[in-house]
Amino acid sequence: MQSEHQPMATHGGERLRTAVVGGGAFGTALAVVLSGAGHQVLLWTRRDDVADAINRRHRHPRRLQELQLPPRLRATTDLHAALAEAQLVVSALPMTALRSVWARAAAHLMPGSVIVSTTKGIETETLLLPTQVIQQTLRSAVDAGRDAINRVSTPVESAHPRSLRVACLSGPSFAAELAQGLPAAVTVAADAVETARFVQRGMSTNRLRCYACGDVLGTELAGALKNVIAIASGVAAGLQLGHNAQAALVSRGVGGDHALGGAPWRGSHDIRGIGGSGRFDAHLRGGVVAQSSSGPAPGARSSA
Predict the structure, then answer these.
(1) pTM of this structure
(2) What is the largest CA-CA distance in the chain?
(3) E strands in 60-194
(4) Does residue 20 contact residue 30 with C-beta atoms inside 8 Å?
(5) Residues ≥6 apart with Cβ < 8 Å to 182
(6) Dist CA 141 CA 137 (whole Å)
(7) Which candidate in 207, 226, 279, 283 is catalytic?
(8) Strand, coil or helix: 168
């Protein structure tokens, strides 16, 4: 099985040097998308066996195993090799690994890099969202006497969060479907509209439509809250509570999301859009809880 992504728009015909940080299913799927769009893609993974299998056999040994990866897609376990020349950096890490990996990665970013995070969740200890964790980690690198921020911003502005070119990506986008080249749409959000548009132009293909917006908070909250409702829905499925209970749970969850979106402290419109309601709809239509796709539904009663 091969993907059929083709470029839809590029930066004046330029092919971007791109790093994908995270060799899980979603990171691999996005690496396939970006490679199909004509970019030079290097996928970073912690595991030597994964990098070796991708480079030698063009297969991921643990995720999306049925997919034949593009020969031009390469993998590495060396963060410096992945990031040193990357113009676009896709951070596809689990929330639990985000801070530790970026603490190591910060020093290797090249000047002008744009980072787009696909991580969903809220950091337990700090209650920070993924882009906030990345920004804080990069700023901490400067405070510790390292030069990571100067690689992505001017020295004068390096302590200011707006000088960091960080975006987030969210939407109904199951990894297997993306990798197969099935049509999908996602939201790309950044505080600076040009950062969002840079990512939009770089990642859009004939099969993946990226919509740019400025609502980072709404987009990331939608992604985090969808996961909570999806897990709860999986518990309901495991307990065999029926479709009525699952529909009630999800609809109330969506209602809660929309209430947050209308909160006076923020006009978080993307909670109602692709990054919010769209992800809920994909969960329902997919017929499975993405978080439990590798095992029994949470709460499933034992037959013993």
Answers:
(1) 0.80
(2) 65
(3) 74-76, 88-91, 114-117, 166-170, 184-190
(4) yes
(5) 207
(6) 6
(7) 226
(8) strand
Tokens of 25: 């299913």
Q: Is 120 labeled as catalytic in the residue annotation? A: no
Q: Quick one: which of 186, 191, 197, 187 has its CA closest to 214?
A: 191
| CA atoms within 13 A of residue 191's CA, in its CB half-sphere | 12
Which residues contact residue 80 at a Cβ distance below 8 angstroms, ignoring those fewer than 6 apart?
A: 108
Is residue 62 packed enough to be buried (19+ CB in 10 Å), middle (13-18) or exposed (0-12)?
middle
Per-residue pLDDT of the chain (304 residues; tens, 9 = 90+): 555 656 554 444 579 999 999 999 999 999 999 999 999 999 999 999 999 999 999 999 999 999 999 999 999 999 999 999 999 999 999 999 999 999 999 999 988 899 999 999 999 999 999 999 999 999 887 666 545 455 555 443 443 344 579 999 999 889 999 999 999 999 999 999 999 999 999 999 999 999 999 999 989 988 888 878 888 888 888 899 998 998 888 888 776 655 555 544 444 555 555 554 545 555 555 554 444 444 455 555 544 3
Residue 101 in contact with residue 32, Cβ under 8 Å? no
Provide the token pair at 62: 């643990």
